[in-house]
Design goal:
By secondary structure, the chain is an alpha+beta fold. It has helices spanning 2-6, 16-22, 62-73, 102-128, and strands spanning 8-13, 33-37, 40-46, 77-81, 88-92, 95-100. The strands form two sheets. Strands 1-3-2 form a three-stranded antiparallel beta sheet.
């Protein structure tokens, strides 16, 4: 995976303090994003592919364009917090949902995870029959 090759491998348990430290301005791992697998931060300072979509809002920065690009090319669900405005966004399947409250983000992530779990269960059932 190209993004894994651009960052710093961490393999650390996800925590509020660790994420706050990683994204604290001017720290070495601040730029780029993190890749979380299960409950672990696998990589920090990863550079993701930018979206090629046209007609995006002009105020969307590099972080938002990378979130869209990553969700275009993979099945990743990407959470973006704007450094400038504090607005929370969610990129899913090339779509950017924003602005979100923390409660809306939580609800949407739960819905996505439950849907993915149901899709996997259906696939297993189809393969078994």
């Amino acid at each position: 995976e190209p993004a894994r090759e651009t960052g710093t491998i961490l393999d650390a348990k996800v925590s509020d303090d660790l994420l706050a430290t990683i994204f604290f301005p001017k720290t070495p791992l601040h730029d780029g994003g993190v890749i979380i697998v299960q409950d672990r931060i696998a990589v920090a300072a990863a550079i993701f592919p930018l979206t090629q979509a046209e007609g995006l809002q002009r105020n969307l920065g590099l972080r938002h364009r990378a979130a869209l690009g990553l969700s275009d090319e993979t099945d990743a669900v990407v959470v973006v917090l704007s450094e400038e405005t504090g607005i929370i966004s969610l990129a899913v399947a090339g779509e950017l949902r924003r602005p979100l409250t923390t409660d809306e983000l939580r609800s949407q992530l739960i819905a996505i995870l439950l849907q993915n779990k149901n899709d996997e269960k259906s696939l297993v059932e189809q393969l078994a029959s």
